[in-house]
Write a structure and sequence with these properties.
Blueprint (H helix, E strand, L loop, with lengths): L34 H6 L7 H15 L4 H10 L4 H14 L4 H16 L3 H10 L4 H8 L4 H16 L6 H14 L4 H15 L1 H9 L2 H15 L4
Helix pairs in contact: 2-4, 3-4, 5-7, 6-7, 8-10, 9-10, 9-12, 10-11
């Protein structure tokens, strides 16, 4: 078959394999032999203050934090008290940490968004390590009139979706306000006013609530509010 055209490709007359063919080992991408020693070299230890700052910034990126919250996060990561104090003192100086501003924003946000009263808000601030005097100043911006208006709005909104006998509804609503930190007098008055405006039957019930019923409701409020302490 002399006149037959010679075959090309992978037969007996195939060209030598090109670099990168399966028959030729291909070096690992991005890896050189001389990198082996470098890979085995341990990384130098990180500066503790730098690590502390990094931890704080990650915490603050999620939401504002109090100094106590950041100190707790640093302690859990093994940062020494001395280094933590240095970093947090510096953050205090430049205004990155401001417990007073945190407390004011917390009170405004949680009262507006969740309808929490001063007692519940004080408990939350205490849990976050806010100093008692700082918390009192922030809570002082929430006056009694605003608190009473919020309690009434909460009851009216809840009442639209609540069914049952007036007595059961009354107790359910005062319990709801108690869990949000409202004092007994504020809670009971808000519920009575809302019931009186709902219907003639509810208004009649509200007028007939006697001293014994109020005393029982106040006891329930006290029991519910203890969960805040």
């Amino acid at each position: 078959m002399a006149g037959r055209r010679a075959r090309t490709g992978r037969g007996w007359d195939a060209s030598p394999p090109r670099t990168g063919d399966a028959t030729t080992p291909r070096p690992r991408r991005g890896h050189r032999a001389e990198d082996a020693d470098a890979d085995a070299t341990p990384a130098p230890p990180r500066d503790e203050a730098e690590l502390a700052r990094e931890i704080c910034l990650r915490q603050l990126a999620v939401r504002p934090r109090t100094r106590a919250e950041l100190a707790g996060a640093l302690a859990r990561r093994g940062i020494s008290e001395e280094v933590a104090a240095q970093v947090l003192d510096r953050y205090d100086e430049v205004g990155i940490i401001d417990d007073a501003a945190f407390a004011r924003a917390w009170v405004s946000s949680r009262h507006t968004g969740r309808g929490l009263a001063r007692r519940a808000l004080a408990n939350e601030l205490r849990q976050r390590g806010v100093d008692g005097e700082v918390a009192s100043e922030a809570l002082g911006e929430l006056d009694e009139e605003t608190e009473a208006e919020t309690a009434r709005a909460l009851v009216e909104r809840k009442l639209r979706a609540t069914r049952g006998e007036p007595d059961a509804v009354f107790r359910r609503l005062v319990g709801m306000l108690a869990r949000k930190g409202y004092p007994p007098g504020v809670a009971i008055r808000a519920v009575k006013e809302a019931l009186a405006a709902q219907s003639a039957e509810a208004a009649e019930f509200a007028e007939q609530i006697d001293a014994d019923a109020l005393a029982d409701a106040e006891q329930e409020l006290d029991r519910d509010s203890r969960t805040l302490d």
